[in-house]
Amino acid sequence: MQVLQVQLEIRPDPAEVGRARRWARSRLAGSGIEADEPLAETLILLVSELVTNAVVHTGRPAVLRLLLPSSVTGPTVGERAVAEAVATVRLEVLDASARPPRPRCADGDETNGRGLALVDGLADRWGWSSEGAGKRIWCEVDRCSATAAIAVTCDSAPAVYGDLAFEVV
After folding, report:
1. Helix axes of 115-122 and 38-58: crossing angle, nearest 10 degrees
2. Strand pairing category for 134-144 and 3-10
3. Mean pLDDT by 10 residues, the chain (169 residues)
4. Which one, of 114, 108, 141, 122, lies nearest residue 56 by Cα?
5. Smallest Cα–Cα separation from 17: which of 63, 48, 60?
6. Do 15 and 84 form a contact (C-beta atoms < 8 A)?
7. What is the rounded CA–CA span in Å between residue 166 and residue 156?
8. Distance CA 93, CA 128 (A)
9. Cα dist. 160→83, 84, 125, 143 in Å?
10. pTM attached to this predicted model
11. Distance (Å, rounded) from C-alpha 64 to C-alpha 59?
């Protein structure tokens, strides 16, 4: 599967968070991920959290990068292995601060301090690495085709007849 990589330079200004969300939403739509899909909303929230962290905590320019599968409509279970029907969307934010991300524990009414906890809860995987004089924070969200999602969540593989999947219970 081929991957399309797009990126946006972010200025150290809180207004850039909204611009990053709008940019990411348009790139997702261009890759076939519809705006009303739960995946799109999850990815936009992840963009918001990671870009906010970069802008607020570093005060330096950053780069937002999306790596999108070129074909988000994977094969059906009957055509290929279920694992091949899973497409991963990767989001990266590169900034010029070598300071590692530090998850915080926000108390009750605090309005800050939950960003990395949200990333941890929403992404299938996330992490960070040193990158030159700065760092790269990344997260990945898997997108399964509808039939692959059925097959992956069931204890036994469902029988497939045409476009329909059945499971004996």
Report:
1. 150
2. unpaired
3. 89 95 93 88 95 91 92 45 64 93 68 75 94 94 59 42 42
4. 114
5. 48
6. no
7. 11
8. 9
9. 16, 17, 30, 20
10. 0.74
11. 15
